[in-house]
Write a structure and sequence with these properties.
By secondary structure, the protein is mainly beta. It is built from one helix and three strands. Strand 2 and strand 3 form a beta hairpin. The longest helix has 8 residues.
Length: 84
């Protein structure tokens, strides 16, 4: 569902408590619960498996990755959707 190089993709990530959804160009591509067995399997199978505590922080910085290719970002918005 990613668009070809040179076209903009639209992504939305929604986190509500431990529930995480990632949408790409209107299609849900991730629907997972943090700290669940499925989450642990996904982290263990990732390139970050050896990073202690990876994916466990409740808050912190946002990381944007480029995987070594040219990349551009525009109109990044971070919004709190509800009060804690």
């Amino acid at each position: 569902m990613a668009k070809p190089a040179g076209e903009w993709n639209q992504a939305r990530i929604r986190v509500e408590g431990p529930h995480v959804e990632h949408w790409l160009n209107g299609e849900k591509i991730v629907d997972i619960v943090r700290r669940s067995p499925e989450w642990a399997r996904a982290v263990a199978a990732s390139k970050h498996a050896d990073v202690e505590g990876f994916g466990m922080a409740r808050e912190g910085h946002i990381l944007l990755q480029d995987h070594g290719d040219a990349v551009g970002y525009r109109k990044l918005e971070i919004r709190r959707l509800f009060a804690d």
